[in-house]
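Q: Predict the assembly, please.
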Amino acid sequence: MFTNLTKLDLKDKQCMSDAGSPKLCMKALPGEGAERSCAYDGARVVLMPITDVAHLVHGPIACAGNSWDNRGARSSGSQLFRRGLTTDIMENDVIYGGELKLRESILEVAAKHNPKAIFVYATCVSSLIGDDVDKVCRDVAAELTIPVISVNCPGFLGDKNIGNRIAGEVLFDRVIGTAEGTEEKIPLSINLIGEYNIAGDLWGVLPDLKNLGIKLQTAITGDAKFDDIRSAHRASLNVLICSKSLTNLVRKMEIRYGIPFIEGSFYGIHDTSQTLISIAKALNDPDLLERTLVYVQKKEEETRQIIAGYKKLLENKRAILFTGGVKTWSMVSTLAELGINILAGGTQNSTPEDFQRMKELMDPTAQIIEDTSSAGFLKIIAEKKPDLIVAGGKTKYLAHKTRTPFLDINHGRKLPYAGYQGMITFAEALTRTVLSPVWGHLKGDFPPREGELQDDKAQTL
Amino acid sequence: MTKLRHYNGNPQKNSPALGATLAYLGVNGLLALLHGSQGCSSFIRLQLSRHYKEPIPLNSTALLEESVIFGGWDHLKKGIAVAADKYKPQIIGVMSSGLTETYGDDMVSALASLRTERPDLQDLPVVLAGTPDYIGSMQEGYQRTVEALLMTLAGQSNYGAGKLQGIPKADGAEIPSVVLLPGCHLTPGDVDELKEIVSSFGFKVITVPDLSISLDGHAELEAAPVVQGGTLLEEFQRLPECKACFSFGLSMEKSGEFLKNTFGVPHVNFPSLTGLTATDKFILTLAEISGKEIPEKLLRQRSRLLDTLADYHDALGGQKVAIALEMDLLYSLGSCLVEVGSEISVALAASLGAGNTPALPIPIEVGDLETLEERAGQSNLIIANSNGRQAAGALKIPHLRAGLPVFDRAGYPQKCWIGYQGTQLFLFDTLNSLS
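A: Predicted assembly structure:
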């Protein structure tokens, strides 16, 4: 029942202990208000976008009840993944054990929802009461015709990042390479690892891949079907999008299936082009590379032309950036593309490598956000007085209280920001919020202070 | 009820610790500290944030693997101490989780031990609410936390602030105070209206907890890690002097009884404030206790409601409404619809509720939103939280959002569905959803 943390590649390299750098496996202090999340959350983020499987959470209501269907991962087909399914562990289960309930639940979910597979998530409480989720899954699978896969991710194992990696292990051990039929590699095919199709991000990139003749075998796991992930080992190349959280997965796929991997990002014009070119190079097809070089130049020009108007409006605005994963560094160049200066940057759920990369890209005068609690975040806003804040939804309403324009770039957003088209959408959205007339209304005193004429205020709006 | 299946499909339940957070968010200067892993608090912040569109200050003892082996007792002590030192709150409110209740952390002894080690924290009020995730839903967590707040803080003058006097009137007599205990089925907008109604009878009002001035979405100057707005610590101290206590929702009955039994404050419980009969009962009680005439404004609102009942009785009559909500809200809205001639076709509560089970013409069962989807097929309207959208979408039935979370409709937390005017608005919302 124990997850072997040493298997998870937690220490890829020596530890970097810069101030503000996220520390893997780091113990948050009780009461300090660090506001990170848990391993279960990390595992569900990676696995739950798989569309045609059932995701059954073996835990009390706090784990699934507060969180189901709350991420913006989109599907072009089955909506089964959006179902909230949980064994809803109750007091009696805590006393007598929940294995029987889990067993019945798996059978019932299989019968009612007809999934391609069932992922069963262990949680803090199920682990504490000693339920052997793995064994129950194996036993039930023998009675069913579909795979029943246990994910051992109790929240107390650590933060989100550890959960991401546990999910990667599960995909590698239990899903990838289990398809029947030929093992042959599909030419010019790639997997996009760590692309979750938030708000339809993936669909913004697909047209470019298609235009270039690159075949997407599967995303892991945005808009993914279970069978496509089973055949993920037939891809010729792995492209790691959400940076390091699934490094363990691509490394192991390289060793077992001989699939090389590259890292990339589809946020911003520069990174999108770079990633497409890297893919073409790594696929080792001179013809494709030539096509790609011409294609990205054309797309860059087109896109820059469209966003030129927005750039003019946003140029020299000063921003605070606070996010996680690949966006830590990818957003730096995206904002730079629009002429926006970054006053301060920080991260919560990234790896030290992502963090280093962000630091290198940022202006040396930019401040690193060290205290990642709400209090620390507010303090830096008060000090820097930015024109805009680009961060995850968690900080959205906090930012609004400071009366500062805010753009959500994490999983709660409604608009896709990936690829060239995404850059246009991003620029539009950013302009909309920064130039919104409401900020002027929010900043004035009411009733007006003496000496402050109403007319003056009207002019600033 | 016979258990149809073992799993919970599309849960309408929220965790008890989320209910506890909600109760704590109505107390001014309080820092809420969840004794659990970081995910527990993270999910609650997200869920409440997308409902209220507000930052949700909630701290955590951030338990990790070693606490599973050695227990979280020390973590809790450390958590309270760190939070007290770093954020200097007026009150700390702790709630437990499934994790800590399973290994049985004794919160009371942890607090006592901390106070021996840190005499400077002796006077810091710390509320401890036991809210295991595996017992009940949001309503139970909220209920237990209000009880814990009252037991720890009511009438206690040894905590910091000195004892306050009642507000003197011009002629020297004090304005009588009453205490209101709103259940978690009432929105900040509801509580606002409730206070207004009670004040119109000449009472000074103390509300525990008071979400109408903390989670009402005002553009306060600065967001903070402690609650801004809500019941004041001094107000807890004055509770024993109150002339009466009104509790709202059956889940709040026990809290009201506690004030009655401990301090002799007369207590009346109102299971619902939505609907003509329910509001009449409340207004008549206020008139009786205050010895005052019913204000003209309320009579006018009542008259408007009567006219609406006449105008729309046909449109409302015979409508089949399927409701899935937390118990108190289910009863409030359900009984109002019954009163106007609608039929309740399905009544599913998130949990059994810890008080008495109220009665509707059909039995209230505990059920999830997958059950709603299975049974609501013949209904004209679904009333459920936003997560009911999957059921409503599949069945192609209109869906009126209520409860928590409501994240895909604007303004729900400010909505008021209580009193004569609020009942009228609820009926309008129902009718507009149907058309």
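The CA atoms of residues 52 and 413 of chain B lie 6 Å apart. Confidence is low (pLDDT under 50) at residues 160-167 of chain B.
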